[in-house]
Design a protein that fits this description.
CATH topology: Jelly Rolls
Radius of gyration: 16 Å
Shape: globular
Number of domains: 1
Order of helices and strands: HHEEEEEEEEEHE
CATH architecture: Sandwich
Strand order of the largest sheet: 1-2-9-4-7
Length: 175
């Protein structure tokens, strides 16, 4: 697939959001995301900056109408995200490298603790995109299983700068 520029990709997201129900947007965006992932010079040096600890997020584009955000996530070798769900919908794809994604369903929650049970595993290679279904549990964990830095591109509903990390709940695994 030939790469598309960031402006064209953003216009396509706007068209998707104008013409289909919100709950269908992540799947449709995941279908067009590989075109953006194919752009070799998409990211500026500041989008590739490794965090001092954990994984990093860098704003690539924030829609001026707060409809969506595009972020670059930087995954140092071997790192795991926490098991988490999101405040808004999400589509994502691997720009460089390989990521593992584990999906979960809620087991039970108490006032102080949320538990999840693993339901699926996905291996995402460079150029591949996926999404979290907004009408199902959107609990997952992302892992860089390699010894190199991996970069992924995430498209979130809303303004990522205003939302913050877009994590609603952190879960532990049900034993």
């Amino acid at each position: 697939m030939l790469g598309m520029g960031l402006n064209d990709f953003c216009k396509q997201i706007g068209t998707v959001m104008d013409n289909i129900p919100d709950h269908e947007a992540p799947a449709r965006i995941a279908e067009i995301l590989p075109g953006l992932l194919a752009v070799p010079d998409l990211l500026k040096p500041e989008h590739r900056k490794l965090p001092s600890n954990g994984y990093g997020r860098h704003d690539v584009f924030l829609c001026p109408n707060d409809r969506f955000s595009i972020l670059a996530a930087i995954w140092p070798a071997g790192i795991y995200s926490p098991i988490h769900d999101h405040l808004t919908w999400c589509a994502f794809g691997v720009y460089e490298g390989v990521l593992h994604e584990m999906r979960y369903r809620p087991a039970h929650s108490s006032k102080n603790c949320a538990h999840a049970i693993k339901t699926a595993f996905f291996e995402h290679k460079a150029g591949m995109a996926g999404y979290l279904p907004p009408d199902e549990p959107d609990i997952h964990c992302i892992h860089n299983p390699t010894d190199q830095t991996v970069i992924s591109i995430h498209v979130y509903g809303g303004n990522a700068e205003k939302l913050g990390p877009n994590l609603e709940t952190i879960y532990s695994v049900e034993t």
